[in-house]
Amino acid sequence: MEIVNKVAQSGLVEFNLEDHYPEGKRVLFDIKPLLFQELILKEKDFRDFVSKEDWTKYTGMFVAITCSSDAIVPTWAYMLLSTALEPHAKKIVFGSIETLEAILFHEQLRKINPEDFRDKRVVIKGCSNKEVPVSAYVEITNLLRPVAKSIMYGEPCSTVPLYKKK
């Protein structure tokens, strides 16, 4: 009796978001320790810190700038940090590490040509070894829905149907 791989013959195209994971260290830069009593930004002290800090330690990293304190931080402070980080970091965003991940995946997924999936039966792989944000799953679904014949989630041998073109 011949063993037939029905998954291989099904014509399913697997899309693995993990393949689009931007490699590089993620860092959260929190302004909170730079604030006076974790509440007030003193401009002179802040500018001194920015001018003396060794920003090269962020070379090649993805940096999220935030303030975890409930302080009112002027917008220019984040902008000043960005000017110091920009020559070194791969990417700088305002927000959390989760925000950073969402933005990184957004940029990667915008490089995909949806036409490559026209009239295809696509399985968006569910399990991954790297942290893939839910926003990336939503975004790839939105990119593929107008062109794909069908979209499923999971593994080719066990899928959850999400969309089928009428």
Task: Explain what the structure shows.
It is a single chain. The two termini are 37 Å apart. Helix 2 runs parallel beside helix 3 (75-85) and helix 4 packs parallel to helix 5 (134-144). A hairpin with a 2-residue loop joins strand 6 and strand 7 (158-164). The chain has 2 domains: 6-22 and 111-164, no CATH class; 26-89, no CATH class. The chain has 5 helices and 7 strands; from the N terminus they run αββαβαβαβαββ. Helices cover 30% and strands 22% of the residues. It has helices at 6-9, 43-52, 75-85, 97-109, 134-144, and strands at 12-15, 26-30, 62-66, 91-94, 121-125, 150-155, 158-164. It is α/β, with parallel strands linked by helices and 166 residues long.
How many distinct beta strands? 7
**Helicity level, as a percent range?**
25-40%
Mean pLDDT rating: 92
Order of helices and strands: HEEHEHEHEHEE
Quote the beta fraction: 15-25%
Shape: elongated
Regions with little confidence, pLDDT below 50 for 5+ residues: 4-9
Radius of gyration: 22 Å
- Total helical segments: 5
Helix/strand class:
alpha/beta
Q: Alpha-carbon distance between the termini?
A: 37 Å
Strand count, sense and barrel status of the largest sheet are:
4 strands, mixed
Order of strands, main sheet, comes to 1-5-6-7
Please indicate the count of domains: 2
